Amino acid sequence: MKTNFFIIYIFLTICFFIPSTAYAYLDPGTGNALIYVALSLLGAVFYFVKGFFYKVIKRKEEQNETQADSKDADNHHSIVLFNEGKAYWNTFKPVVEKLLGKKQPFTYYTMDIEDPCLTIANRLMDNRYIGDGNMAYSKIGHLSADIVLATTPNIGTKGYPIPRSKKIKKLVHVFHAFDDLATYYKGSLDHYDAVLLVGEFEIPLIRKLEELRNLPAKELVPAGLPYMDELLKKAKQNSDELMRTKGKKDNCFNNPEEITVLLAPSWGEKGFLKSLGTDFIEQLAEKKFNLILRPHPQSLKVESKLIHNLESKLKKYNNLKWDFNPDGTDSLRTADILISDTSAVRLDFAMVYHKPFITIPYVFSQEAMQDFEITDIGFSWIEENIKEIGYTLQVGEIEKLDEVIMRVLKERTDKDTLNFQNKNIFNIEHSGEVIAEYLIKTTAFK
Question: DSSP string spanning 356-388?
Fold first, then answer.
């Protein structure tokens, strides 16, 4: 085909564009006739080339369409791990390691260019940055896969930017925190096919939502908490320092200047930075406590203006530092006591580092409750049970929080955090193995 086109091109070039010497005389009539014939021939050649050209183009387009269809077919994935950002890497890390260890090929998509997984080179893992915002949402919304593992709630929920792709055979949710769904937004797991459970306590909560909304029953898999397994591993690696901080004697907690307080709120309306402001933080700073303020990673995305304003307001305190590291291990390990609201970091602090925490309870207004699953569940399992291992601030105690801190540190007893952990979390230190096995088994019987 290319050869024919080239021959025609050479012929036209020789005929019309290469000058030659004329040795004959032509009268005007004959000349006009010859010109007419030449123009006719040129027109015929032009339409022949035009037809030939369009034929080639059409064939090329058909070929491209065929290749595109073939590419789409090849673009179907067996196992996909979808991560919104590096803050959730600890949830995926144990699963990634086990899948690689089992020689299982898979795809890892991330919306964060700084995701640590992108630094791992392994022929079994196709790890890619898929952009942020609409570009990434569209990619996931049109993804073709046998099974997709994600921490992201509300995929497929009306008004949420990530639709549920019809080409995903099984969408699986893994928790990135110790959670009971109460503070998840409504419809958070409605479009998921399976849920990897933290513990048995979640089963009746999920089944209740399914019944209320007439949803098909999800596959509920006893899995555990991969990110907590990572924290436990890191704590063991730093066991000397952990024992040093854990082993402080009560009489060492007499002076606020010797005490490090970690302030780790949740984000949005339920986070104390928004609901309470900074008055109580400034009071603690004035009392000379060493303060670490660690906003929720999501706050940096959706409340950046608030965080920026608070930074400006609190910069006068030299005994307060901010922690924006996605990995909160250093702050958790350094602090003597934690203050939080509804954040699951309280359980991390108690169960991994065996140190006390104080909860500032958030009272949902009837209007605010309408946005969260607590409206349909009716209660928060965590808030009802967390008192077993921590202290919940009473009404009016916020004004004397410094006294409460000293009292909790001095009166603290070794709460049965280990018992709480064993009772409420599946597969402690083995969740990565369990989840990897589940993914492989599920795709094997697709």
Answer: -EEE------HHHHTTBTHHHH-S-HHHHHGGG
